[in-house]
Amino acid sequence: MLAELQLFALAAAPEEICGILFGREGRVSGYRAARNVADDPCRHFEIDPAILIAAERAQRGGGEPILGYYHSHPAGTVTPSITDAESAAPDGRVWLILNGQDAAAWHSADNGEIYGRFIAMELDCSGAKGQTAAK
Ligand SMILES: [Zn+2]
């Protein structure tokens, strides 16, 4: 799954890609790619709200839990940006960031080590399949 996302990230550059991760307890079971609807998709990302709403609704209905989100930094490091920190709620969700080569996972928290919002974590993507979640 990670290799697949890296290819998508490279193909979309200089625009950022984004999507939703499903799973639980640091283990990704699947992901759903979303349109990046940010005004400037080369500098920011905003997951298509229709995809988010559908995923939240599916979760409430007993579907796969939302683990977090992924997005790319096509020309940067895989450390969260200050904009990421400002837009992240301290809700414990996972933020996977990739740049076409490297990837790192963080979870949002009240007193994180990165901009007060993110804490580095291990994320197991080995059992994940793409696009299968939230159907
Ligand atoms: Zn970012």
Secondary-structure topology with pairs:
Blueprint: H1 2-12, E1 18-24, E2 27-34, H2 49-60, E3 66-72, H3 82-87, E4 94-98, E5 103-108, E6 118-121, E7 129-130
Parallel strand pairs: 2-7, 3-4
Antiparallel strand pairs: 1-2, 1-3, 4-5, 5-6
Bound molecules: zinc ion.
Please state the CA-atom Rg, rounded to the nearest Å. 14 Å
CATH class: Alpha Beta
Number of E strands: 7
CATH fold title: Cytidine Deaminase, domain 2
Give the overall shape, derived from the CA principal axes.
Answer: globular
Roughly how much helix do the residues carry, as a percent range?
A: 10-25%
Mean pLDDT: 93
| Residue windows where pLDDT falls under 50 for at least 5 positions | none
Order of helices and strands: HEEHEHEEEE
CATH superfamily: Cytidine Deaminase, domain 2
As a percent range, the share of strand residues is 25-35%
Class from secondary-structure proportions? alpha/beta
Largest beta-sheet details:
7 strands, mixed
Tell me what the structure shows.
- The protein is α/β, with parallel strands linked by helices.
- It has a 7-stranded mixed beta sheet with strand order 6-5-4-3-1-2-7, sandwiched between helices.
- The protein has 3 helices and 7 strands; from the N terminus they run αββαβαββββ.
- It has one domain: Cytidine Deaminase, domain 2.
- Helix content is 21%, strand content 29%.
- A hairpin with a 4-residue loop joins β4 (94-98) and β5 (103-108).
- The radius of gyration is 14 Å and the shape is globular.
- Bound molecules: zinc ion (ZN).
- Zinc ion (ZN) binds at residues 71, 73, 80-81, 84, 97.
